């Protein structure tokens, strides 16, 4: 049970292993497996089996042996581990990008944040950790299946519904202006195909000085969003970037870059809301051939009414796969739910169809 001063979900990160928890097992060759502890359960491999009862009650960081003597190091999965292994229906926002979003958008404790779309809930988890129990995160998702998957994943890592979270179904640009008062939002986070379509909605709900950050997959999306923000006049000059992560092999004097790296996953674009009636300053640049024509716009979006999502790098997800992922996410919650009795089940994570 959490005390009133304990951040939501913190108890699940401390103390000995308990039934229903997810535990990451690493063998002597560095191979990792994540299991959910169940009384009487067992983890089987070709090297033998390890009973879950051996782990329940043990301190985090212990080393245990299976029936044939093979050893495993046991730790709770970090957020980055959980995000990359959780049930999903859509591609997740990678930890490196989620960290950039939280920092570069200045997501602070107590902030009022809106996001769209939710996907599998990876970014929602990072945003909820940043705003805290006294903050506010309103997530908008067009597909109910994605909302179900996200809810299951969020409740798994926090041990139940989060008090600062609300999900609504529908198109962001239509719903956010109905449900959020003008100028009441501190930060807007968009992960969608056409963020430029949301200019008016973002400008309406975002407070002066507030940050708008968009996550897009392709150069054409990045370019069109930036040009739309410039043309609108209610925001500061947009900034765009991407991040890449390269690990290093560390073994004695054999210190070198890893052969594999997490390279391009997406672009991030930020801008800040100006005060009403203010004309933003345009940076002075040398004359260049940077203007675009109607033909260029056609290249950006051959048909604005019918976006080719696969052409923009988004893979289609079958309904069968979505249903399976939602079932897996819900099952994970049921096996490992640590319900916070201080908070009613309806405190957060509700889906409302406005």
- What is the straight-line distance between the termini? 33 Å
Mean pLDDT: 86
The strands making up the biggest β-sheet line up spatially as 12-15-11-10-7-8-9-16
Which fold name fills CATH's third level, the topology of the largest domain?
Answer: Rossmann fold
Supply the CATH class of the largest domain.
Alpha Beta
Task: Give start-end ranges of low-pLDDT stretches.
Answer: 337-354
Main sheet?
Answer: 8 strands, mixed
What's the tally of helices? 9
Relevant CATH superfamily of the largest domain: Vaccinia Virus protein VP39
Keywords:
Rossmann fold, 354 residues, alpha/beta, 25% strand
What features would you describe in this structure?
It is a single chain. It is globular and about 70 Å long. The chain is built from nine helices and 16 strands. The strands form four sheets. The protein has an eight-stranded mixed beta sheet with strand order 12-15-11-10-7-8-9-16, sandwiched between helices. Strands 2-1-6-5 form a four-stranded antiparallel beta sheet. The protein has 354 residues and is α/β, with parallel strands linked by helices. The chain folds into two domains: 18-75, Vcp-like ATPase, Chain A, domain 2 (Roll); 81-278, Vaccinia Virus protein VP39 (Rossmann fold, 3-Layer(aba) Sandwich), CATH 3.40.50. Residues 10-29 have a biased composition (Basic and acidic residues). InterPro entries: SAM-dependent_MTases_sf (IPR029063), TRM61_C (IPR049470), tRNA_MeTrfase_Gcd14 (IPR014816). One of its GO terms (cellular component) is tRNA (m1A) methyltransferase complex. GO terms for molecular function: tRNA (adenine(58)-N1)-methyltransferase activity.
């Amino acid at each position: 049970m959490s005390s009133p001063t304990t951040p939501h979900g913190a108890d699940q990160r401390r103390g000995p292993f308990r039934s229903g928890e997810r535990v990451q097992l690493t063998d002597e060759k560095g191979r990792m497996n994540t299991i959910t502890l169940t009384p009487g359960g067992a983890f089987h491999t070709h090297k033998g089996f390890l009973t879950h009862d051996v782990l329940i009650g043990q301190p985090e960081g212990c080393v245990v042996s299976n029936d044939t003597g093979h050893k495993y190091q046991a730790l709770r999965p970090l957020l980055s581990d959980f995000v990359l292994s959780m049930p999903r229906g859509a591609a997740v926002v990678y930890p490196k990008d989620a960290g950039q979003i939280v920092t570069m958008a200045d997501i602070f404790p107590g902030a009022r944040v809106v996001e769209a779309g939710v996907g599998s809930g990876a970014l929602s988890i990072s945003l909820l950790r940043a705003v805290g129990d006294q903050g506010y995160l309103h997530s908008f998702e067009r597909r109910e299946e994605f909302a179900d998957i996200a809810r299951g994943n969020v409740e798994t890592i926090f041990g139940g519904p989060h008090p600062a979270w609300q999900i609504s179904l529908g198109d962001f640009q239509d719903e956010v202006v109905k449900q959020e008062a003008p100028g009441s939002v501190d930060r807007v986070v968009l992960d969608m195909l056409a963020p430029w379509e949301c200019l008016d909605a973002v400008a309406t709900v975002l407070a002066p000085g507030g940050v708008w950050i968009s996550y897009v997959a392709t150069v054409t999306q990045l370019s069109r969003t930036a040009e739309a923000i410039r043309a609108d006049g209610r925001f500061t000059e947009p900034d765009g970037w991407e991040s890449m992560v390269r690990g290093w092999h560390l073994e004695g004097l054999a210190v070198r870059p890893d052969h594999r790296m997490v390279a391009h996953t997406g672009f991030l674009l930020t801008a800040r809301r100006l005060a009403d009636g203010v004309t933003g300053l345009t940076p002075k640049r040398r004359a260049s051939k940077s203007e675009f024509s109607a033909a260029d716009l056609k290249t950006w979006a051959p048909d604005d009414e019918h976006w080719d999502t696969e052409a923009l790098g988004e893979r289609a997800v079958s309904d069968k796969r979505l249903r399976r992922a939602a079932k897996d996410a819900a099952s994970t919650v049921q096996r490992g739910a640590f319900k916070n009795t201080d908070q009613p089940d309806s405190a957060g994570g509700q889906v409302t169809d406005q």
